[in-house]
Design goal:
heterodimer, A: seven-stranded mixed beta sheet, five-stranded antiparallel beta sheet, 3 helices, 14 strands, 24% helix, B: alpha+beta, four-stranded antiparallel beta sheet, 7 helices, 12% strand
Amino acid sequence: MSAPHRVGELEIDQDLARERRGWRIERGGWLVMLGAVLAALLGAFGRGPLSHAAVGGDAGLRLEYERVARARAPTTLRMHVSQATLDGGALHGDTLVVWLDRTYVEHAEVVRMVPAPDRVTASEDRVLYRVGVTPGGRGATVTFDLEPERFGRITGRAGLVGGPSHEFRQFIYP
Amino acid sequence: MDSVFGAATVYIALLLLFRISGKRTVGDISTFDFVLLLIISESVQQAMVGRDQSMTHGLLLVTTLIGLDVALSLWRRRKGGLARWLESPPLVVVENGRPLAERMWKTRVDESDILAAARERQGLERMDQIKYAVVESSGKISIIPWERQ
């Protein structure tokens, strides 16, 4: 250990250069903290205006999801099916079959689904959910409450049996 | 595996956040600071423990945290670049009875803090009785009075 510095009569390990460097880093750190808080308010870490995303505006199936979400925290995927799509072959009697691709379901647990499915079946690369639809002439909405289990980038695909499907990408924070 | 990574991430993040927030934050703890510390520990604890409430996970977390603390203290003894920055050196803020305004401003210590420390630790009454005041690495203020004739 080096000999302690002297300040007047004090034997003290004071180091002004180091102290000043420390202050500069401190100030920089405050800006980073401020930036992080502002970004969080905007939704850069999920659950805010920046994180909302949608695909398939007029294609008969519109997916609303969160561009960024967090591992082990709830996130929502909403599927809006237009009446034209229902009439165009997606509706089988009064049931609608929506699907999520299997890899996505393995990354994100489906905690709840509204409406609750009558039956869940699996095919080689998809998980299919059969839900009842009341004919009302204004389309139907199916909501998945999900909980991503791993962090990183995940790609999902959701669609209708006998109808369109869309791909969506999410970034999951740890 | 994720127990160790989780604990290490939390340890490093908290270390950086507390270092960035400066000496003043860790120094004299008021009731409010104490409550704040409890809230901080609670927020982090949930994220670290997650759904795994097993004994193994809990003990792995504790082992990692203590291990990192020991490792850090060993590393600090080498006085290398980053290790040095993580421990901020003591700073003289009153020299020969003269308050050093810039240093006090930067460390967010004011004359009333120094006078309070002087009353508490030395039983002093006025600024002119103080020869040196030092903000220590721990964030506490130590007071050296003029020698009494």
